Amino acid sequence: MQNFTGVGVSPGRIIGSVRQMPKPISEPPAGERLKAATTPEVATVDLRAAAKVVQAELQRRAEAASGASKSVLEATALMATDPMLIKAAVKLIATGTSAERAIWESGASVAEMLHNLGGYMAERATDVLDVRARIVAELRGVTAPGIPHSDVPFVLVAEDLAPADTATLDPNKVLALVTSGGGPQSHTAIIARALGLPAIVAAIGVDALQDDTEVYVDGAAGTLLVDPGDEQRTAVKAWEHVAASLSMFDGTGTTADGHLVPLLANVGGAADAVKAAAAGAEGVGLLRTEFCFLERDTEPTIDEQVVAYKGVFDAFPGKKVVVRTLDAGADKPLPFLTDSTEPNPSLGVRGYRTDLTSPGVLKRQLTAIATAAQASSAVVWVMAPMIATVDEAADFAAMCRVAGLKTPGVMVEVPSAALRSASILTEAEFVSLGTNDLTQYTMAADRQLGTLAALNSPWQPAVLQLIQLTVAGAIDEGNSKPVGVCGEAAADPVLAVVLVGLGVNTLSMTSRSMSAVGAVLKSVTLEQAQKLAQLAVSARNSDEARTRVRAELPILEELGL
């Protein structure tokens, strides 16, 4: 039995057939010419035929889709035989350019034109680039890019998934996600947890698996087995029983001895907030305000932001909603705010720092948040990402006071903020640990790189020690200010116990994770959690830390976690 091991990032056990994610289509070489035996007339016929095939396939998928996915596919299908796109490519073919290079250049020109028109037309630019890649794939006789199509559910195997790859990902068709790259905080890991799909990342070698190979995936153990037997089929049935019992959170996060640990939700807009409230979330621990700013060429108006924020606040009347101000830069660039030429964006002008180069954007956002808060009964707190110094915390707190926001806080994402939390909390009212970036910066390991997945684990004792120091700073000299965790670490039921043992007051996660976290927390007392936290902090490495804690939590086997 062939066995692949990676990092388990989302629990679940499933048996299914593999579908490999096609590799991205490479750009045809600049200056590529028609082959000697191919005339421009024949190449033109081939191009038009390929475009028709692509259009038919997209229309077929659109008919089987629904909601936003259906609209995306219908719009893309229309673009496949767009006269402007095809005509420009045919002109290039007439000069001797290969059909592949012609449609590539034509697509770039049309996309740029649409982008410059702005508004709805600018949104269609992405469709053009998708279509040209599909037509090139058809001309080459290779599989088109994107999530593979299948009439039956399957296990999606890939090098990694980019955010754009998920536009047509149907959780009713994708049984599990397994990637050879990525890390515990990669896009794939975050997507899997949000959708409740079993997932493994950094499983080196899975790229070689053939389509239709039957595999067993254990998202908690981080293992993939080829040709599963009776033992694995029994494990899947056991998980199905457990999953049904973990489908709902009862609305109260607590340890076995009654120590309350509110379980909050990470949300990215009103729709997420409504779902989180229905799932029993006790509030919002992280509202990602980027949803107002992404895919725009200009800053949203204050009025537009007010409407968007109020939709979230109204989902949690009388409850806490923690708003993170715009976290632009690095993996979330904005054309009107960030500098795409920065040599190292993760260490550049991002988060709070954008106020240095684009003053006014943060002030207007705080005004919008305050206006929306005044029109809602939610208890609104606000925090700034990428705070590194006490002076930055003081400046942000002053801006909040001017805007009329009474509870300013900061994200602890860089080691300096953790080490100086006591001083920072003389200026701020709370801190929230963003464990994704805190781990990345502490270990100097890009969170998207599968080869560094072991380094990029929040179980690293150095990261846990920084969390411990942050909590110590929060109670230094009687401050006793709240410390939350809103990074992906809070969604790990085992690590959640450690975080509570370290003194973290609240945990924020995807709403799908709350039931498992709540169930494991209720199996330990606060004293037991504190002892487990010390076992983890004193471990030699991340694997030892995780193994030590798991060994002391028998409920994990019972719950299939």
From TrEMBL:
Record domain Phosphotransferase system enzyme I N-terminal: where? 5-124
* Enzyme superclass (EC): transferase
| This protein's UniProt keywords | Cytoplasm, Kinase, Magnesium, Metal-binding, Phosphotransferase system, Sugar transport, Transferase, Transport
Q: Which Pfam families match?
A: PEP-utilisers_N, PEP-utilizers, PEP-utilizers_C
The EC number(s) given in the record are: 2.7.3.9
Cofactor requirement: Mg(2+)
Q: In the UniProt record, does the keyword Magnesium occur?
A: yes
PEP-utilising enzyme mobile domain: residues covered? 154-222
Localization of this protein: Cytoplasm
User: Which residues lie in coiled coils?
Assistant: none
Q: PEP-utilising enzyme C-terminal domain: which residues?
A: 254-524
PROSITE patterns associated with the record: PEP_ENZYMES_2
Key word Acyltransferase present in the record?
no
Which GO terms fall under molecular function for this chain's record?
A: phosphoenolpyruvate-protein phosphotransferase activity
Q: What family is this?
A: Belongs to the PEP-utilizing enzyme family.
Protein purpose: General (non sugar-specific) component of the phosphoenolpyruvate-dependent sugar phosphotransferase system (sugar PTS). This major carbohydrate active-transport system catalyzes the phosphorylation of incoming sugar substrates concomitantly with their translocation across the cell membrane. Enzyme I transfers the phosphoryl group from phosphoenolpyruvate (PEP) to the phosphoryl carrier protein (HPr).
For this entry, the protein name equals: Phosphoenolpyruvate-protein phosphotransferase
Q: Which organism is it from?
A: Cryobacterium breve
